[in-house]
Structures are given as C-alpha cells and as structure tokens.
Predict the structure.
Amino acid sequence: MIRSARLVSLAIFAAASLATPALAKGPKAHPKSHSAMNQTPAAHYAAALADPARPAADRERDAVRLPAELLAFAQIDAGESVGDWVMGGGYFTRVLAAAVGSKGHVYAFQPGEFIAFRAQYGVDQKAVDAAYANVDAVAGPFAAPAFPVKLDTIVTIQNFHDLYLKPFPADTGPKAVASLFAALKPGGALVVVDHSAASGTGTTLADALHRIDKAAVISALTGAGFELEAESPLYAHPADPRSANVFDPAIRGKTDQFALRFRKPG
C-alpha cells in the first residue's frame, strides 16, 4: 500500500524434501496451464517457505501473513505462470517463486506511479528479479500492467483499494480490472486480499482509511466478467471495528481482511 496523503503532495497520483533452493538468475522457464482443481500438498507450500533465499525479515512476518495458507487458497501449482500485481517489497513474490519452482514463472508487477512516488519500489523490484531465475519484473501504469504472457493466476495483496485513491483518475479501477481479466488465461484465477471497510461504504474510504468494502470489490470484478469462486476467513479479525486507518498503531497488523478467489470463465 502507499499512503495517499503523500501521493497527493507529490501530485501523483512450499514439495522438496527439505527446502526449495533459490534459483540462480538464468534461462527462463515456460509456464504451464492452470489446474482448476489444485491438489498440491501442504508439504510443498511448507518447503517454499523454507527456501533459504528468503530474508529473515520475511520469515518473521509469516506468523501474521500466513503465506502457506494463502498459497493453498490461491491453488498455486508448481509450474504455473503467476502474476504478482503490485509486488511491494517482494515478500510474496519470493514465496511464489519458490512455490511455482523452476518450471514455473512469476511476473512481478510494480506500478510506474509507485516507483515515481518512492524509488525504493523500483530497487526492490530489480533485486527480486535479479535474485530468481523464474521471476521477471513487469512494468507499466497501475491500470495497465504489461504482462508478457497469459497467466494462470494473479495475486494481489492489500492493494486493490489503491485503485480508488483520489490522486488517480476516476477510471483507474475499471481499467485495471479489465486489464487483469485480459491478462489471465481462460479458467485463470484472481486472488484478492485487502483491508475491510464497513459494509455499504464502497470505495469511499480508500484514501482516509486504506480500506475497501468487500462488496465493492465483488461488484467491480463480477461486473467485468469474473466469477466469485471462494472466500476464505484466513485474515478475519472480527474485533476490528473497521473504522481506523490501517496504519494506526492500535490496529496495524490486526485489521479485518477478506480473501477472495475469482475465476475467469473458461
């Protein structure tokens, strides 16, 4: 996530026996077709988390971010081509790279607007791209990621609400949703995780609280042709009144979040 106030001021808007080793940068792997009925064992996801290339800081965050459980919900298979739409610092990109393995590929998208706002986003993207043979950096505007191939799965975590920040044009949301739909293979999946806003608030609290109403996400995506396939309570925190900014120390790391899996009709 990026803080809208700063945007305004800048006027911009786990399988292996023990662990899956990091892949040295080299020839790229070819993506494989998505299996809608994922049967990947939990051991594979656990092995992905044990990848020795993952920074210690990433491992310390696992207890809260529950990456193995999210990989299972997203039905990530070894050999898939996966898009990490708005990769941030690369925490989940690294997990995905280990999970899809040497025969899979991860396309790590960082919006040009985000890099212009904070150069470190670009630095982080280049570092992950350089560290893994099966990761490629993807450029482009927030609403038009330049994915070079059709993808089996796209994952986006805590960034869907950013489409509705006031510094971005009003049509950013619809354009991005259309781009994500087009980027997937028929039968491909889109997994969205974000901070919950109170029911009925739509997209209106994206700036003030960095939250979005789950119903607004479902409406935006189903309206563009996606089918809602599953919802997970993985990140549910019922005690969160959903009325505080997600960066508030009193609630940060304990926000109520939804996890939704959509499918592009095949």
The longest strand covers residues 184-195. The mean pLDDT is 88. The chain has one domain: 4-22+38-263. Residues 120-131 form the longest helix (12 residues).
